[in-house]
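Hi V.,

You were right to ask for the full record rather than a summary. Here it is.
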Amino acid sequence: MARILLVVFLGLFFVQQPCSAQSDDFGMWTSVELEKKVNKKFSLGLEAEMRTRDNSGEMDRWSFGLSGSYKLTKWLKAGAGYTLLYDNNEKCSYYDDEDDEGEPWYGKVKRQAQYWGIRHRVYAGLQGSVDVGRFKLSLRERWQYTYRPEKTASRDFYEYDGTTGELMELVKDESEKTYKGKGKNVLRSRLQVDYDIPSCKVDPYASVELTNAWSVQKVRYTLGAEWKIRKVHTLNFYYRYQDIRNDEFDSEPDMHILGLGYKYKF
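Predicted structure:
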């Protein structure tokens, strides 16, 4: 049964791949989480995460979050939290076919330089789960609101050859650009299957998560495993593919991701 589910999951994964796979990025995500069980139903959590991009050669994001969960019934729990995001933004500015003197300027792209900025995120949701033999099926529905405060950044540009993609030069510009504050609501839906291997501390899982804002904007496919080293220590290893459909707010690329998470429960 486990092999059948894995084949079906991989089949859906490859069917959904975009034709321009050669432009996909690669990054690594690492996290550390602390979870405190207050009582039988209520738990609190703290988490810090770091992400990279550009073939893991550039820092992409730091985040710090506080969360809480409450077990409503044996199979249903509610959760909510707040996350502070510190992002390394990279915005595409515009295409230009003339230079400053009005002469033709073919094959060059001006791309705005990176700048760091803060975002605030709050979320709340429900997660239901059911055991089927050694399998555990779960569905999580989460409302999420993210707000990006107004930010003024330097308007330095990189010039690229539009045909070869080769970096040509950095153009300094003393002017600045102000990005207005912006908020966004999304619904994140995640379906996950876990499998409990007999007499084994490693439990594999697979999941598909959709981010919706009136239409599907992002799909994440994940294959991973949790290793319970001891009762209070857990490592989470995973591979994730991020398929961007229509998400101008985050400006994230399609990406292959290797992830490692550590969780301490007390």
